[in-house]
Amino acid sequence: VHPNVSQGCQGGCATCSDYNGCLSCKPRLFFVLERIGMKQIGVCLSSCPSGYYGTRYPDINKCAKCKADCDTCFTRNFCTKCKSGFYLYSGKCLEKCPDGLEANNHTMECTSIVHCEASEWSPWSPCTKKGKTCGFKRGNEVRVREIVQHPSARGNPCPATSESRKCIVQRKRCQKEGKGKKNREEKRKKANKDESKETRQESKGRAARRQNREQRENNNKTQPKKRKAPNKEENLAPVDTAH
């Protein structure tokens, strides 16, 4: 029995004393001892503070302290966040990560090592020299690939993303862009002109044929019809051969 036990306590205490603070808590609250200098004071909280984990019992709910290297924990043997200088791995706080894992200084956890991954090479580009594809015999062609997975700190570095090699092409003259364009334009105009000329000639031929046909029809209408000449043999009198 504690001295000066009181039933009319504040701050969630069920029972308390002037010297030790809370002695028991109201339902669903956690009892924890806080150190103030050389003195420990009992308090009742809705959740356990950092560095403690909660356990529930039929008669009391208590906050127990985590291990010294653990900042927050689920149980005494399972840490969820480590203190500075330690790395979390499988609920434990370690100064050095196991083999095959690396320390992540951002999350302060031991994570798997990630190696670089690159895509397949692209097809080789056309053979070029100084940006041109003609006017030379020896040039260069290139191919590229992309990085699909960047490595972690201890992962294998990424390989080169481009390659170049010598190439040989059939030497040919470069056609000037302006001249080639002009020649194409002239050919197009000439083709259009020839097509228009042929179309006009066909139209003239059809018009001439139509005019000749109409002329013949008019001539047939205006000229009188020729009478059929009598047969000379029909006009001759019969010759009497009896005498």
Please write out the topology.
Elements: E1 13-17, E2 21-25, E3 30-36, E4 39-45, E5 52-56, E6 61-65, E7 70-75, E8 78-82, E9 87-89, E10 92-94, E11 101-104, E12 109-112, E13 117-118, E14 138-144, E15 147-149, E16 162-168, H1 177-222, H2 232-235
Antiparallel strand pairs: 1-2, 3-4, 5-6, 7-8, 9-10, 11-12, 13-15, 14-16
Offer a few descriptive terms.
two-stranded antiparallel sheet; Hormone Receptor, Insulin-like Growth Factor Receptor 1, Chain A domain 2; 16 strands; two-stranded antiparallel ribbon; 2 helices; alpha+beta; single chain; 32% strand
Structural commentary:
By secondary structure, the chain is of the alpha+beta class. The protein has 2 helices and 16 strands. Among the domains are: about 1-65, Hormone Receptor, Insulin-like Growth Factor Receptor 1, Chain A domain 2 (Ribbon), CATH 2.10.220.10; about 70-110, Ribbon (Hormone Receptor, Insulin-like Growth Factor Receptor 1, Chain A domain 2), CATH 2.10.220; about 120-170, TSP-1 type 1 repeat (Single Sheet), CATH 2.20.100. The protein has helices at about 175-220, 230-235; strands spanning about 15, 20-25, 30-35, 40-45, 50-55, 60-65, 70-75, 80, 85-90, 90-95, 100-105, 110, 115-120, 140-145, 145-150, 160-170. A hairpin with a 4-residue loop joins strand 5 and strand 6 (about 60-65). The mean pLDDT is about 80.
